[in-house]
Amino acid sequence: MSVDANHVKRLLESDEPNYGAVVRLGPEVVPVLARLIAGPDPRVAAAAASAAGLVRHPQATQALEQAARSASAMVRLAAAGAARNMQGPAVNRVLHTLLADADQGVRKFAIKAAVARPHDSALVARVRSLQGSDSSPANRTLAARAVRFAESRRGGGGGSRIA
Amino acid sequence: MRQEPEPFVSGPPPALNWRDRRNTRMQGELGSPPSPRPPAAPTAPRLATCGPRETLDHFDQDRSDPTPAHVARLRQIARCIRDSQRTARPIRALRIIGHASAEGSDAYNQALGQRRADSVMARLRRELETLQPGLAARLRIVAESRGEHELTGRGREFDRRVVIDLPRVHVRPPLPRPPYPRPPRVPRPRPPERGCAPQRERIRLHLKILFDPGIPISTMVQSMRQVYHPAGFRVEVASTERLSRPSLVDLDLHCPGSIDTCPCDGGATSAEQNQLFANRNNVTGHDIVVYFVRSTTPALNGCASHPAGRPGVVVTSVASQWTLGHEVGHVLGLNHVANNDRLMTGLGTNNITNPPPDLIPTEIQTMTNSPLTVPC
Fold first, then answer.
1. Do B349 and A17 touch (CB under 8 A)?
2. What is this structure's pTM?
3. Structural domains in chain A, sorted by start
4. Which chain B residue lies closest to A9 (C-alpha atoms)?
5. In this predicted model, what pLDDT tens digit does every residue of B95-122 receive, in sequence order?
6. Which strand ranges, in their side-by-side order, compose the sheet holding B53-56?
C-alpha cells in the first residue's frame, strides 16, 4: 500500500504533529519521511525525523542518518531524540556523531539516547569524556548522571532514571 | 560593603549664602568635587523621589545590560518605589519599555528592546529585593519593547533607552486608630483591578523566556489579541521574565512508561515539563504561564499539557504567529478542528488561510466557562 506524501506532510505540519497517525501508516511511511527530512522546511524535516524514531523499523535508520547530517540543528536535535527509540549498530554510529555535535541541545539528547545502550562500551566511554569536556555545564551534569546510570545497568542494578 | 550613592531627595536643598553658592559653582566648573552638603536635619525622614516617567538612555550599542550609571539610577528608583509605599500615592505597578536605535532590522531591534527592558526589570527587582524583601513580588511589573518605532530624534545614543513608567495610585488615608479593639476583619473577595471594556473577560499571561522564537513574542501576543479581543477576551501580559535554565531550552517530552511521548492535549507531563512549570514567579490563581523554549523532542510548535494546577503552555522557536493563541485555546478547553480558517486548526497554524483566524460561538462559550477566564 502506498502512502500519500501530502497526507503525511499535513499530519506533520500541525502545531502538535499527529505522530500516532503517522506511525499507524506503517513502515511504508519511512521513504516519505526520508524525503521530508531532505526537504526545504526544517520544521517539517524535524517532525519527520521525530516520526522516523517512533516508527521503530530497521529502514528508519537511514532516515535517521540523513537527519543527523542535516545543516539544521533543529533536525539534528530531532534525530538525537528519535535515536532513543531505535536500536542497532547503525544507530549507535549515528549517536557517536551526534555526541560530537556542535550544538549543545543535540548533545543533550544524544547523551540521553546513549544511556539507553549501556552495553556499548565505546558509547559509554564517549559520554564519560563529556563529563569533563562538554562546554555546557548542564550537559556535563547530565553526562555524569548518564554514566552512573549506565554503570548501574551493566552491573545489574536499577539506577535512577535519566529523564 | 557596597557604598550607597547619595540619595535623591525631595524638597529644596538647604539654603546657601552668596559665598557658598559662588564656591559651589566654581568648584563645579573646575571639575573638583562639590563641597559636602550640610548634614540633613535629624527631624522627619526624607523620601526618595522619582518622576512618573524615568528614562535610562545611552545604552551601549547592541547591548542590553545596564551601565553603571543606569544601575545607580535604578537604585534610586527602587528607593523611590519603596518610600512611596508609605505615602498616600504609592507606586504599585511599573511598565518598563525597551527601545532601540534604527540600526539593524526591525525584528532584531524589537528583540533588542525586549532584552533591554528585561535586563532593567531584573536589575530593578534585585534592587527592590535588597531594599525590602518581598516588595518586588507585590508590584506588578510589565516589560515590553517598542523596538525602533519610537525614535527620539535626538540621536542614536538617546534612542538606545529604556523608559520606566511609574504611575502612582491614590489610596485612602488610614482611618484614625479607634480607642477600642478592632473587630476581626471579614475577608471579602478582591474586586477586579479595573474594567476591561469592551471585552467581557480577562486572560492574564506570564511570559517566561528561555529562548527567543523566530517570530517576535510581541507579534505573537498581538496576533493572539487579534483573535481573542473581538471574541470578548482581553489578553493581558502580567509579567515577562527571562529564565536561565539551559538544561530546559530543548525540552524533553519523553514520558516514563509511555511508548513514545507525552500527549500534548492534556494528561501526563514529562519530568522536564514538570521542572519547567515549577518556574512561577508572579503567577497567581487564574493566570496562564507561557514558556518559550527553543525546541521540544519530539518536534512540536507548541504544547498545552501542563502539570495539574499549573496552567500553561510551551511555545517553541519554530512556532507560527498564531501558535500562542492556539495553545492557550487548548488550555481553555478547545480541541482541534479540521479547518484552516480557524484558530484551533489541527492542520497547522502556519497554514491558516484567512487571517486572523476565527473562534466560533461554541468555542467562545467553552472559553467563557473556563475558570482561567475571569469576568471583568
1. no
2. 0.64
3. 5-154 (1.25.10.10)
4. B347
5. 899 999 988 888 889 889 999 999 999 9
6. B53-56, B162-165, B93-99, B140-147
